[in-house]
Design brief:
With about 120 residues, the chain is mostly helical. The protein has helices at about 15-30, 35-40, 45-55, 60-70, 95-115, and strands at about 75-80, 85-90. InterPro entries: HTH_HxlR, WH-like_DNA-bd_sf, WH_DNA-bd_sf.
Length: about 120
């Protein structure tokens, strides 16, 4: 992972950083994708389990978002040949790597809230 060491010496943001941020936002955008990913962080889940875990998501929206996450290589859909048919969703390696992004978002959010709501 590339890091900018001293931001005061940087003339312009490298184009690859802007593209990487756009790619991340395109994959994670929307109200439901992060909650879906979070519900899969601890292992495989069935559609109904994911739906029950996420308050107020409709089956249609969950289906759409799961398909989108699958298309983007974040979620894997596995169909088992059984009676009745069992379908499970899990995170791919790329999806599991999002945990680092989520951790960074939590850290930033805690600091931001502390500094904006309780400035010293």
């Amino acid at each position: 992972m590339s890091e900018v060491k001293d931001i005061s010496t940087v003339k312009a943001c490298p184009k690859q950083f802007v593209l990487a941020i756009n790619d991340t936002l395109n994959v994670l955008s929307g109200k439901w994708k992060l909650p879906i990913i979070a519900s899969l962080l601890y292992g495989k889940s069935r559609f109904k389990d994911i739906q029950e875990n996420i308050e107020k998501i409709t089956p249609r929206m969950l289906s759409k978002e799961l398909k989108d996450l699958e298309m983007n290589g974040v979620v894997k859909r596995t169909v088992y040949d059984s009676t009745p048919i069992l379908i499970e969703y899990s995170l791919t390696k790329s999806g599991e790597a999002i945990l680092k992004v989520l951790d960074a978002m939590v850290d930033w959010g805690i600091d931001h809230r502390k500094n904006t709501l309780n400035p010293k």
